[in-house]
Fold this sequence. Notes:
8 strands, HAD_sf, 215 residues, PSP, six-stranded parallel beta sheet, two-stranded antiparallel ribbon, HAD-like_SerB, 9 helices, alpha/beta, globular, single chain, serine biosynthesis
Amino acid sequence: MRLIAFDFDGTLSDSEMTVLLGKRKAVAEEMADITERAMNDEISYAQSLRKRASLLEGLEIEDAEAAYGEVELRPGAADLIARLRDAGHHVAILTGGFERGVERALEKEGVEVDSIVANRLPVERDRLTGDVEGPLVEGTKDEALESLADELDARLSHSVAVGDGANDLPMLEVAGLAVGFEPKAAVRPSCDEVVTSMYELGDLLAERAIVRKSK
């Protein structure tokens, strides 16, 4: 068994959750700018996440749920997850994004993963509070990956991490195989391999004998 860890926004999904939520409050452009600065390592991820969450204060939960419902997996992602799990690997999603959006995207495709480590947007009186909570606000993805490896008694040197942005750097740097998915310029030097689609990633993992070749 290997531990395979995916980032979500920008990697498994090309939907940016905070932007979809921001559209519901007409702050999507501000959200996108903050996100881009964080992914390029211009500001800390925790700082960017709190800034984006604060812009959502007062958003009705119905509108938030509608935004989560728009989140989608990339083409080929569901099939690759299923193949990895069929091969006996533990598939994890480690994201600074929001658990509910990840769950909705997986449900839509009828696929499951073994672990989701994600953040949450608290709700009071059926509206978002503007706060954010969870293990990956201040916590980092290398810590999350190492914790999962310990729980599973899996060798970190055999793990695979797939990500695209600066907040993925910690897990890419400790994983046995670091794969950049159309990585940002600041991330590319830390990647062992770079791919541009889930199909290309599947071929790479098949070459490494981690999954069987797609039929």
